[in-house]
Amino acid sequence: MPTTLITNIGSLVTNDPSLGTGPLGLVADAAVVMADGLIAWVGPADRAPAADEVYDAGGRAALPGFVDSHSHLVFGGDRTQEFNARMSGTPYTAGGIRTTVAATRAASDAELDATVARYVAEARRQGTTTIETKSGYGLTAEDEARSLRIAAAHTPETTYLGAHIVAPEYADDPAGYVDLVTGPMLEACAPHARWVDVFCEKGAFDGDQARAILTAGARAGLIPRVHANQLTYGPGVQLAVELGAASADHCTHLTDADVDALASSGGATIATLLPGAEFSTRATYPDARRLIDAGAAVALSTDCNPGSSFTSSMPFCIAVAVRDMRMTPDEAVAAATLGGARALRRDDVGRITAGARADLMLLDAPSHVHLAYRPGVPLVSRVWQGGVRAA
Ligand code: NIG
Ligand code: FE
């Protein structure tokens, strides 16, 4: 593979403070060399080594590819009607998930595969180069396993979410459903998944059920992450920290003890904030400032799904987080890149440093701050994934 030099980068976010200024490790007038799919060199353009190919960034800003650590892309149908009703005042509940379960079960493998491909590509055009995605709309052993098999063809970051809601067939026997999720369904799914997740919420799974499901998943070699404290206060966040989950996702309704638990995990459990969900359900946003000031590590992700957050756009999430969650532009950009990488326990993405994967984007803008300053504007102008031009 020929080496490529990207030069004349007006402002480069490395996410490595040792390479530049501030926590983002900003380098002005920078260059990056990519070789064999990895970053081979980063620094000031006037000191860059020679390469086989040269690309002139024209003074544009560059940053690491976004790491979207929370999405639900394996689904059939959509929920336009539910969204319409919600915008006329009908509140969001976990119950809408059933609509998508029926449509997902009815969809062919090819249809589901095309859906995942479509939204992974849509996300990539907006700068996302690493994306996690979940099962959770099959809710039978077969449909959960096929969801994960299909997801795994598009990303290594796959999450078993058989515990999204109690399957309709088990409405009168939730304990029986937990037995299925921790037994035969887990066995069918574990080979296709890296993570195990549970929707710990009123109308979904309580703390005891969530503990049983996450513990069983961990025994099968999956690493826990939790949908926690989205719609109401509850045990999800503290359970996530107690079990050493990689992330507690949503974190919208937090007590001081929840915030303390996340902070005292020392970065082991990342608070993953999903503003697309509050935006699209007209709910109150999580308070990122409170978490950051307490010392908790945060990530920003899309939660892309047909019910609560049908956006694949990390730039949109950054803009909302800055406008409404009291994050600075620097914090939001860090949370959408390095934060996501930490939530996926990956040190090869989310940064532009020698040895990392050559996942980066150029913006049609002089600075990463424009992602928040120019909301809704398609600023992502070029994307490399593993050193290959991807958009
Ligand atoms: O993260 N909270 C649970 N799951 C999704 C919503 C899924 C749906 O409504 O289809 C979420 O918001
Ligand atoms: Fe979710």
Automatic annotation (TrEMBL):
GO molecular function terms listed in the Swiss-Prot or TrEMBL record: imidazolonepropionase activity
Catalytic activity reported: 4-imidazolone-5-propanoate + H2O = N-formimidoyl-L-glutamate
Annotated pathway: Amino-acid degradation; L-histidine degradation into L-glutamate; N-formimidoyl-L-glutamate from L-histidine: step 3/3
Positions annotated to bind N-formimidoyl-L-glutamate: Y137, N305, G307
EC class (word): hydrolase
Binding site for Zn(2+): H70, H72, H227, D303
This protein's record includes keyword Repressor: no
InterPro entries named among the record's database cross-references: Amidohydro-rel, HutI, Metal-dep_hydrolase_composite, Metal_Hydrolase
SUPFAM superfamilies per the UniProt record, alphabetical: Composite domain of metallo-dependent hydrolases, Metallo-dependent hydrolases
Co-factor binding details: Binds 1 zinc or iron ion per subunit.
Annotated compartments: Cytoplasm
Residues annotated to bind Fe(3+): H70, H72, H227, D303
Cofactor section: Zn(2+); Fe(3+)
Domain Amidohydrolase-related, first and last residues per copy: 248-365
EC number: 3.5.2.7
Chain residues that bind 4-imidazolone-5-propanoate: R79, Y137, H164, Q230, S308
Chief localisation class: cytoplasm
Domain of life (superkingdom): Bacteria
Keyword annotations: Cytoplasm, Histidine metabolism, Hydrolase, Iron, Metal-binding, Zinc
Biological function: Catalyzes the hydrolytic cleavage of the carbon-nitrogen bond in imidazolone-5-propanoate to yield N-formimidoyl-L-glutamate. It is the third step in the universal histidine degradation pathway.
Family: Belongs to the metallo-dependent hydrolases superfamily. HutI family.
Protein name in the entry: Imidazolonepropionase
Organism, scientific name: Streptomyces fildesensis
